[in-house]
Design a protein that fits this description.
By secondary structure, the protein is α+β, with helices and mostly antiparallel strands. The chain contains four helices and 17 strands. Bound molecules: 2-acetamido-2-deoxy-beta-D-glucopyranose (4 copies).
């Protein structure tokens, strides 16, 4: 008689223990790990891990010249956009990521936190793809005009500043160019957004541009622009991206197949219809 009762109690205890363990596991507050900055043209996000379960994160930004500010309050995501709090672009910032359990009045201790690596927008933000605004090839001159990428940083009048407004003469562009279908590349660099280069007349040229921040020691080069070819003496199709060519080709094949198949289908339909009418004409008892 005693044995089953004991067994029952132990079973209950085990069940109870596992419930306690389960809720402990569920409510565990973890501090942020793998904290990284992701910043492109001065739009700056802080990213970290892990996804929170039953707790939330609060991010506090701290510049070496400005006061600490809480920014993303009690969020359950693992990213925080700090762009608007890092407008002093040469300032070095760090962020604290607090891991906060559910709010309670008894618990007024500083929640556990982790500190991000430092980040200085001016020296660390990645420079994005510039756009080729215009180009012309006339005789022996290839003229290229570059559009500066915009940033989320505004002028006093509200319009957005581009990277030239921010970096001024610290920004240089490099134009890399080559004769179409050849591999020998040449490049020129200038603090200007316009290039006039000497080329062979009547030949097609391809090029891309890339920004460089001269004062930087690391990540000096920005992303490369799309590649453009001038298309002199080229087939019109060459200027199109591969996907467009494929879509056009598939479209053409589909139309061709339809043209070929249509008479066959029509013929078959007619035949089966006439077969059906023929059957109808046959007396049912045959
Ligand atoms: C943090 O990064 C390391 C190395 O990349 C990885 O092994 C680890 O799983 C990451 N931690 C989390 C919680 O994602
Ligand atoms: C903990 O989170 C889970 C989902 O992740 C939820 O179902 C559960 O109700 C939460 N528990 C508490 C005590 O908030
Ligand atoms: C492109 O440049 C050429 C020559 O510099 C100029 O005549 C033309 O107006 C420009 N086109 C645009 C869209 O700016
Ligand atoms: C705003 O100010 C900047 C520089 O002061 C100027 O370049 C820009 O044209 C202005 N924008 C407008 C819309 O007035």
């Amino acid at each position: 008689m005693a044995a089953p009762a004991l067994h029952g109690r132990v079973g209950l205890l085990c069940a109870l223990l596992s419930v306690v363990q389960f809720s402990l596991g569920e409510n565990k507050v973890l501090t942020a790990v793998n904290i990284t900055w992701s910043s492109l043209n001065f739009k700056t996000l802080l990213l970290w891990k892990p996804e929170p379960k039953n707790y939330s994160y609060t991010v506090e930004i701290d510049g070496d010249l400005s006061e600490r500010k809480k920014v993303c309050n009690r969020i359950s995501q693992t990213e925080c956009d700090l762009t608007n709090w890092m407008k002093n672009l040469r300032e070095m910032y760090v962020a604290r990521i607090y891991s906060e359990g559910p709010y309670s009045e008894e618990n007024i201790d500083t929640p556990p936190y982790e500190i991000s690596p430092p980040f200085t927008p001016y020296t660390q933000t990645e420079i994005g793809k510039p756009r080729i605004k215009n180009f012309t090839q006339e005789g022996k001159i290839l003229r290229v005009e570059i559009e500066d990428p915009l940033t989320p940083i505004r002028f006093a009048n509200g319009s957005f500043q581009n990277i030239r407004d921010i970096f001024k003469d610290d920004l240089e562009y490099t134009l890399t160019y080559w004769k179409d279908q050849s591999t020998g590349k040449k490049w020129v660099a200038a603090k200007s957004n316009k290039f006039d280069i000497q080329i062979d007349a009547g030949k097609s040229y391809c090029f891309f541009v890339q920004a460089t921040i001269m004062s930087r020691i690391n990540n000096r080069d920005g992303q490369k622009s799309d590649q453009v070819c001038t298309g002199v003496n080229r087939n019109d199709l060459d200027g199109l991206p591969l996907e467009s060519i494929l879509i056009i080709a598939f479209g053409a094949i589909a139309v061709l197949m339809l043209i070929i198949a249509l008479p066959v289908i029509v013929y078959r339909c007619r035949r089966s219809k006439s077969a059906a009418t023929m059957k109808e004409n046959i007396p049912p008892n045959l």
